[in-house]
Amino acid sequence: VLNDSFISFSSLTSEDSQFVSSKKNQYEEHMYRVEDERYEVDMVTELNRAAMQNLVVAKRRMDRMTQEELSRFTLDDNLGGTSAILMRKAIHRVYGDKAGDVIYGLKNCPSKVVPVVIQRMRQKDSEWREAIRTYQRSWEEQDARNYLRSLDHQGASFKQRDAPLIRSKTMVSQIDAIARDDR
């Protein structure tokens, strides 16, 4: 069973562990979010590319068949790939609600449906690659903006500790106390 929907990330340490993890600051969180977006986009594009490659191999095999063999040829549940779930997931990403009809066509009439699906997957691949180029600029800007601040683990605690000390009311009362002591 392949789990690509849920990610386990420990935010607390166990009692047995000697490792003390530091709390992430907001800039680190932004860096993690960008990395998660990159990972998700990579997973989508690579899954599409792998599914498309599997269908290309099936099409080449069909191209070498006679007309009679081609009329009897069907794809199994794996749809020309090694994993039925991954192939279905890739087709669902491309076709959405109509994926069930496309999968039915791939299984029962692959000679007509496979070329159309390959063409659509190539089109989606180029669209997604263009979107990645657009996102890449945004991700680079966010990384540049957050990187140095993400390294500052003590800044938030210093800011929180110093905030009451630098208020004008606190400073005035300290000056008054020093003035009283000098008298």
From TrEMBL:
GO terms for molecular function: transcription corepressor activity. Transmembrane segments: none annotated. InterPro entries: HDAC_interact_dom, Sin3-like. GO terms for biological process: negative regulation of transcription by RNA polymerase II. This is Paired amphipathic helix protein Sin3a. Residues 1-72 form the Histone deacetylase interacting domain. Keywords: Repressor. One of its GO terms (cellular component) is Sin3-type complex. Pfam families: Sin3_corepress.
